[in-house]
Amino acid sequence: MSAAAIVAVAGVIVLRGAVAGRLARVELTAPILFTVVGGPFAAIGLVDAQEAPPVVAPLVELPLVWVLFVDAARCGSTTCATTSGGCCGSWGSGSR
To answer: 59 lies in which domain range?
Structure first.
């Protein structure tokens, strides 16, 4: 990992800490934020996804999937239905 990548990730962490209160109001949590920020970092070549040996991928992916699943599970059906314009269909309304 290059020095520029470390500085960029540290900057995102500091920025997230500075606006954590505002992000909490829109339910943008740290796991989602860092997943979204990772895409552009990889696209511009700041981080290289090919650096890690193949055996590391499952060790990284499993906790990521677990954290994102738990994070998404906190969103109740009524929250999903009201904030996304009914993305859950009839699931949030109780009707079938």
So the answer is: 54-96
